[in-house]
Specification:
10 helices, Nucleotidyltransferase, domain 5, alpha/beta, 10 strands
């Protein structure tokens, strides 16, 4: 049994052997947070508290099983919104106490990587994974199922965060990534010339703050002059630039490390331009690319259960001292007292 409450989805799932999702229940808060143009942490935490019992119950019912038949309870404990994380962690600890089950702590980004194990049972480490979401933009070397090394990451905004902010400036709704993707499908990605920031001395790192600011300035300058922007073209230009930055640095890391097995994960992995850019780049470089289906790109508990299977087998268990952490490197494994 896996529980995920790191942001604004209350999710639970039952996963077998780290490869098969027997159930996946998700309560999404998107409609409520759309009113505010983004996730309100306090509201997210309250909704998790209200929904976690029915969501867990639904996951057990869909899997036609009971808590007594479950081998272990897994939960996302980092990173994420701290109040939201604590709802899931506290509930998971309660389940373990009541049912006498071991508790498996799972890193949220590791869960995103593991979504590929559900979609592609043949995929095994080692491989290189691009994780792009609302809060994360990482290039991660997956040495084995519980061994990770960060090769590159964003120095400021995550790709998904930049999508949301640009969408808001262009008058689109939340979540902005999906809105921009739809708006840009009919646009000309060459109409607007946008910067492609680099991080000196760190060829695999990303920086999206300046790119985001360039679009914001374009919009503000046009408004001050009474000019109109071609929204579809600007959305296409921004999306193509982000996809290019992610894909080129990801493939550069793969070439330099001699890695020919690649994967992508996270909410931004649902972006059509990024998927196309990765497929083209992988084919040009003779790499095997694994992409999760759109249903496994966003936050869900099935991916947490997939990773939990391997954490459990590696003996990475927690006790009732498990806490939630807003930020935590992907290469850290939970050890008793490690983060106290």
């Amino acid at each position: 049994m896996a529980i995920e409450t790191s942001c604004d989805e209350t999710a639970a799932a039952v996963v077998a052997d780290g490869r098969r999702a027997l159930s996946s229940a998700v309560y999404s808060q998107i409609e409520e947070h759309r009113l505010y143009g983004g996730v309100v942490p306090e509201i997210a935490s309250r909704r998790h508290t209200e929904q976690i019992i029915p969501v867990v119950r639904a996951a057990l019912e869909e899997a036609h099983t009971t808590l007594a038949e479950i081998d272990a309870v897994a939960v996302t404990y980092a990173p994420g919104l701290i109040g939201a994380l604590l709802v899931g962690v506290s509930f998971a600890k309660g389940l373990c106490l009541q049912a006498g089950k071991p508790l498996v702590p799972v890193h949220h980004i590791r869960g995103h990587v593991a979504a590929n194990y559900l979609a592609h049972p043949e995929l095994e480490p080692p491989f290189l994974c691009l994780v792009a979401s609302g809060g994360h933009s990482h290039i991660v070397e997956v040495a084995d199922y519980t061994g990770y090394r960060t090769i590159g990451k964003t120095r400021d905004d995550a790709a998904g965060e930049a999508f949301d902010k640009v969408a808001r400036v262009l008058g689109m709704g939340y979540p902005g990534g999906a809105e921009l993707d739809r708006a840009g499908r009919e646009g000309d990605p060459r109409r607007y010339s946008l910067p492609r920031p680099k991080v000196t001395g760190s060829p695999y790192d990303f920086s999206f703050s300046g790119l985001k600011t360039a679009v914001v300035n374009l919009a503000h300058n046009a408004a001050q002059k009474g000019e109109s922007l071609h929204t579809a073209d600007l959305a296409a230009s921004f999306g193509a630039t982000v996809a290019e930055l992610l894909a080129t640095r990801f493939l550069a890391a793969a070439r330099d490390l001699g890695c020919r097995t690649l994967a992508c994960a996270g909410g931004v992995c649902a972006n059509s331009r990024l998927r196309a850019a990765l497929e083209e780049a992988a084919a040009e470089n003779g790499c095997q690319l694994y992409l999760p289906p759109l249903s496994l790109c966003g936050d869900n508990a099935a991916m947490i259960g997939a990773q939990a299977y391997h954490e459990y087998r590696a003996g990475h268990l927690a006790g009732m001292d498990l806490n939630g952490y807003a930020s935590l490197d992907i290469d850290r494994n939970w050890e008793v007292g490690d983060y106290l």
